[in-house]
Design brief:
alpha+beta, OB fold (Dihydrolipoamide Acetyltransferase, E2P), Hypothetical protein af1432, five-stranded mixed β-barrel, two-stranded antiparallel ribbon, 10 helices, 11 strands, elongated
């Protein structure tokens, strides 16, 4: 969804449900706003300040953001009342009018409040993948069918398709907060890329266990479904901050893979916890547990590094 803007006053700016409550009507994004428009929509509050005007009175200054850009907003009347209704970083519902001030568009606020969790739609104000998520989802399903070891395929299908909560979170999540694929759908896009590279690698190196490597490629970042929060920007859950997606993913795979032979489950988890580098191993110091673990580390780094360089320049970390 994009940010919402009501038409001019003589046109309907909202609809009414059967219960009498309002429904915001979809309209232009921030990049499409024009002077004179009456604005009612959902945005992210990127910044909130109390400033002092030249006449000595204080006013509220806010930065509103959506997936297309940002715009300044301000309130001179009822500044204290409006300020108490939201915090910096919140998703907010805004009413006001778009004006031009010193050559820039600004929103003169008449109302602003924090959105309740059930009202907030991250699609309105967070960056999203350009590629179709439906198309990427089709590629993900195709790649999962390349796993011919039925017990391994069951783990992938359980986590990425059968479990609705995990599947939906997986398709929505970014891959990183501010590095490569840092947008809604980024995790799905990155996973499909690593899976595609896995297909090619297994053709070049047929001695690799292609089933193990593909299962690990599709699940290597599954822990990220519990790592992020969605507000004005991507944040971290307490679990994501304190535990991290490698450990979360190992836990999820361990539970979903309880039917696997112990050595098979261990090999899959080793690939996942190794994909950022060599993990410690009992009695051996550091080292990859298998050629497949080493291959996944390289393939993940290839896609992450190239994508990061293309998006933000050389030196972006995974």
């Amino acid at each position: 969804m994009s940010a919402h803007t009501a038409p001019e006053p003589e046109q309907a700016g909202k609809e009414e449900r059967a219960d009498g409550s309002d429904v915001v009507v979809a309209g232009p994004t921030i990049s499409e706003l024009r002077p004179g428009q009456t604005l009612r929509g959902d945005f992210a509050c990127g910044r909130k300040d109390r400033l002092t005007a030249r006449n000595g009175s204080s006013y509220l200054s806010v930065e509103l953001k959506d997936r297309t850009g940002s715009i300044k907003a301000r309130a001179f009347d009822r500044a204290d009342v409006l300020s108490a209704k939201f915090s910096e970083g919140d998703p907010v519902r805004v009413a006001g009018r778009v004006e031009r001030f010193r050559g820039e568009l600004v929103v003169e606020l008449t109302d602003i409040r924090t959105l309740a969790p059930e009202e907030a739609d991250p699609e309105s104000f967070l960056p999203a993948a350009y590629r179709s998520r439906e198309e990427l989802d089709g590629f993900l399903e195709h790649l999962s069918r390349e796993i011919y070891d039925e017990p391994l395929r069951r783990v992938v299908e359980d986590l990425l398709f059968a479990r609705k909560d995990v599947a939906e979170a997986f398709r929505r999540a970014p891959c990183t907060r501010a590095g490569h694929h840092s947008y809604l759908g980024g995790l799905l896009e990155h996973t499909v890329a690593v899976g595609t590279l896995t297909l090619e690698t297994c053709q070049l190196h047929p001695r690799l266990d292609s089933d193990l490597l593909m299962a690990a490629a599709l699940l290597h970042d599954v822990g990220k479904v519990r790592e992020f929060t969605y507000g004005a920007d991507f944040g971290l859950t307490d679990e994501g901050r304190l535990v991290g997606h490698l450990t979360i993913g190992a836990e999820m795979i361990g539970a979903a893979g309880s039917h696997l032979a112990p050595e098979r489950r261990a090999a899959l988890i080793n690939c996942v916890i190794s994909h950022h580098g060599e993990p410690p191993q009992a009695g051996r110091g550091k080292g990859f547990g298998s050629p497949e673990a080493l291959a996944l580390y390289r393939l993940n780094a290839l896609d992450a590094g190239v994508k990061g360089a293309l998006e933000r320049g050389i030196g972006v970390n995974d």
